[in-house]
Amino acid sequence: MAQKTFENALQTLEDITRELEEGNLSLEESLKKFNEGVKLADFCNKKLEESQKKVNLLLKKNDSLTSVPFESKANNTAG
To answer: What are phi and psi of 73, to 5 degrees?
Structure first.
């Protein structure tokens, strides 16, 4: 079994979303897919949080580490 990566998990999550949106699955299969999707979304969120922490550690200013908050597109939209 291949090691789970962010990219693989995200692709699987996209596939599950597409299958659920098509509506061709039974209720039981839909629930199984939804449960798998929730687990994958949690895995992806954890990986993103880990990456954000690493980026914060790598940011340097004046030879000392400074944490600069990450701004996503969702946080960066002006009304």
So the answer is: -60, -35
User: What's the domain count of the chain?
Assistant: 1
Could you tell me if 34 and 14 are in contact, meaning their C-beta atoms sit under 8 angstroms apart? no
- DSSP code, position 35: H
Q: How many Å apart are CA 33 and CA 20, to the nearest integer?
A: 8
pLDDT tens digit sequence for 47-68: 999 988 887 777 755 556 666 6
- Please give the C-alpha separations between residue 15 and each of 12, 18, 19, 20, 21, in angstroms, as whole numbers: 5, 5, 6, 9, 10
Could you tell me if residue 39 is inside a domain? yes
Radius of gyration over every alpha carbon of the chain, rounded to an integer in angstroms: 18
Tell whether pTM > 0.85: no
- Domain span at 45: 6-65
Considering the domain boundaries, does residue 72 fall inside one? Answer: no
